[in-house]
């Protein structure tokens, strides 16, 4: 049995009836006999009928390539500095909600040594995450129906991913920490301009995300992380392929030849459960 999943069982609940559940002979079984099998790769799929979404396997592989190059290490390191302020104690965990292929969750578990659950609706992403680390409890699960007990989480991370603040408030303990990362107005600006896009749309989206966060968190603070990361033509192509900008679109021939760096402009929103 996957040790991280086994240790997290006491704070999990059935996604169908919301009753208590436990592991029995390689399956996750609730009091009403709803049963979910543990994948041999070491993750638990709690939405087995879910079809693949817009992020396919190749997009997550491109993300893994970019992460391996260190492009988002400054963000991971900053998160490792912020999260110790969360009220960690026995019986509570850190939740990475929308964890993708697991880069941040794996980094933070290694850095902080706290119980950590990473979940995403995309099975292809969780399959890659399970290969990355055995110290994190990986779940295929839905943000709109988190399979976690009420007030069982010390901190929720929501990084460049859709949010469900109602569910976040339900699972966070009363003094729990909420950390969300959204793109700044100049995030991946070089790629968006190559495609003929506008930076204004990103700016408006960021303002809206900040306002929604403030409505759903107390003691809010915002800090910016803004730097350029050097890229080769291959790495620039992986940046393009990992984002929705690259879904079904192609860059003009030779567009990446002169690109020497990509701007990574992020906003880190931090607050407490209201």
Structure description:
The chain is α/β, with parallel strands linked by helices and 274 residues long. Helices cover 32% and strands 26% of the residues. Helix 2 (57-68) packs across helix 9 (233-242) and helix 3 (73-82) packs across helix 4 (103-112). The two termini are 37 Å apart. The model has no long low-confidence stretch (mean pLDDT 90).
Write a brief caption for the model.
The protein is α/β, with parallel strands linked by helices and 274 residues long. The protein contains nine helices and eleven strands. It is 32% helix and 26% strand.
* Overall radius of gyration: 19 Å
**Low-confidence regions:** none
Number of domain modules: 1
- Strand neighbour order, sheet with most strands: 4-7-6-5-8-9-11-10
What's the CATH class label?
Answer: Alpha Beta
Give a count of the beta strands, DSSP E runs of length 2 or more: 11
